[in-house]
């Protein structure tokens, strides 16, 4: 890096011979440094650390031999943790890939009695747009509580609903809107901005009054021909994703208009009993996949916490030896 120039968004620390650079580097990864710096990446869209704030951060520096001893312990411990993190991420990816592979195989290895249907087949599915007229809610119309849940992009994820963040409109505002009201067994698809996220409005959803926003569409299946649960599984399969990738329009603001969607093809078993069997198999595998995901995510969280615990001890002068037990459990 000799001769490199820094931008206004970077600075360098010039250390004297009594300070080990790796010791300082590890300190910048610690919660002590982050707390003193006042960095909160979860709140700020673009976190910043002013140079004047950086100068106020304090660090207790032991003699150089002790710094090197601590660095050696951290190097060994973090190498083991990084291996465990990589393995957990690989296992997490493998679990998801296994489900995706099985999901796609179900719909590509079609059996007897399957037919190709268009999403625009009015006898199969009714496509309902949201109300985008003069009565569409403005920012002032939303509240944390209310009569009708008004969905935002955070509520519809790649494989279902997420209600950690919600906003509502009043009964009067709901009644002023014409289209876009959900009914049970509807399937949702995001069609603007983030395209292809899906959700099924089934009995597991606690809200009785729900409306979509302008970046979503409702697919209302004729359940005498196609089950809503089967349509949901088709929508999260590679068959749907490949067609979306092929026809998405608009670079700055990607969109998937109805006039394009109506030409999408999906395979449908003519017997509802066959659709039900597929749904049951996929639900069982999906449940097991999510169980594994929870396990691996917890492991990743525990490994991140272990790193911080070790760093805290290191810069509090309490790291007397390699953290054998905790590290061995993490790598296992």
Structural shape: elongated
Helix tally? 10
Low-confidence stretches at least 5 residues in length (pLDDT < 50)? Answer: none
Widest sheet: strand ordering: 2-10-7-8
What portion of residues belong to β-strands? Answer: 5-15%
Sheet having the most strands:
4 strands, antiparallel
Structural class: alpha+beta
CATH fold assignment of the domain at 115-270:
Adenine-n6-DNA-methyltransferase TaqI, Chain A, domain 2
Mean pLDDT: 91
CATH class of the domain at 115-270, please?
Answer: Alpha Beta
Question: Nearest-angstrom radius of gyration?
Answer: 27 Å
How far apart the termini lie comes to 38 Å
Based on DSSP secondary structure assignment, what is the total number of beta strands? 11
What are the secondary-structure elements, in order, as H or E?
Answer: HHHHEEEEEEHEEEEHHHEHH
**Annotated CATH homologous superfamily of the domain at 115-270:** DNA methylase specificity domains
At CATH's second level, what is the architecture of the domain at 115-270?
Alpha-Beta Complex
* Estimated helix fraction: 40-55%
Structural overview:
With 332 residues, the chain is α+β, with helices and mostly antiparallel strands. The chain has a domain at 115-270: DNA methylase specificity domains (Adenine-n6-DNA-methyltransferase TaqI, Chain A, domain 2), CATH 3.90.220. Helices cover 43% and strands 14% of the residues. The strands form four sheets. It has a four-stranded antiparallel β-sheet. Strands 6-3-9 form a three-stranded mixed β-sheet. Strands 1-11 form a two-stranded antiparallel sheet. The model has no long low-confidence stretch (mean pLDDT 91).
